[in-house]
Amino acid sequence: MRFGATILDAEGLRLTAEEKALFRDTSPFGFILFARNIDSADQIRALCDDFREAVGRDCLITIDQEGGRVQRLRPPLARQWLPPLDHVARAKDAAPRAMYLRYRLIAQELRRLGIDSNCAPMADIAGAETHEFLKNRCYDDGLEAVVEIARQVAQAHLDGGVLPVLKHIPGHGRATADSHLGLPRVAADATVLDQTDFAAFRTLNDLPLGMTAHLVYDAIDSEPATLSPKVMQVIREDIGFGGLIMTDDISMKALSGSYGDISRRSLAAGCDVILLCNASLDERGETAAAAGEMSDIAQTRAMAAMSARKAPAELDIEAAEAELSALMGGQVYG
């Protein structure tokens, strides 16, 4: 079965008849959940069943569950986590293990609700001028620490039966503007980028799924990375990322044009699948029509990504929580 080259969402707590028809006809690769889609555990599981029934397969369902400000599931459905940068600061030298345990518990929270993917880890490197929308979502301000922690975060998801989505390829940490509201530009030269921001993603290039960054790298192209064949060539050839690449949400203000136009340009640049969030039914239909079915190579990458989704390994939750608390001096949750 050929997948549609989209990841879409729902307006509410269950799919409407119109949404079911759209998803049945266009067969999106997967779906993403937001706070408006969340009420109770039984309701979330039922909505996930709706998605999978609509497309007739055990499709990917993802979410943004970083912890801190970007956390769709909150108590009582999930633990209230600190922002990642604060978590790392409290854990100090134990940060890689503490972050593994944090995201292993998050994976357990997701999987029991029928969610089998998470938009993490982030390999963006924090800097002095990193915009506040991103900064405390980062893991560190050093390349080696970011890579080590991101690897542990990815492994925690995989051990929990949840597919990680590496973001934001090829590096968002130098952005001084919020890409939800406008288009950030990065002025660093190509050598600096290659040795820092891009290097982080090069070390993690074996992960199954990745998400683009909506920003311009002046040293490479005047187009945003998501729409740039030149940047996508850097991602595929220089960074060597071989997994499925989804766009960041194309409704973000960093990109301009109709959703159909953005979808076509993103796919032409080299993205594999279009992520559209918070759009009307007609806009979702427009995007699905413009994106069409996955290309042959995108389908191969999608199948490889889905094959990395395994049954969760056993987890002693009490022991994991106790170890995490000890590593962080008892200051675990937000």
Shape descriptor reads globular
- How far from one another are the termini? 43 Å
Summed up, the domain count is: 1
CATH class: Alpha Beta
Within CATH, the superfamily carries the name Glycoside hydrolase, family 3, N-terminal domain
Strand content: 5-15%
Q: How is the largest sheet built, in terms of strand order?
A: 3-2-1-12
Q: Summarize the helix and strand pattern as letters.
A: EHEHEEEHHEHHEEHHEEHEHEHHH
What class do helices, strands and sheet pairing give?
alpha/beta
* Main beta sheet: 4 strands, parallel
Structure, explained:
The chain is α/β, with parallel strands linked by helices and 334 residues long. The chain has one domain (4-327): Alpha-Beta Barrel (TIM Barrel). 42% of the residues lie in helices and 13% in strands. The protein has helices at residues 17-26, 41-55, 84-91, 95-111, 132-135, 143-159, 190-195, 197-203, 229-238, 259-269, 281-291, 296-307, 317-327, and strands spanning 4-8, 28-33, 60-63, 65-67, 70-71, 117-118, 163-169, 185-186, 209-212, 216-217, 244-246, 274-275. The strands form four sheets. It has a four-stranded parallel sheet, sandwiched between helices. The N and C termini lie far apart (43 Å).
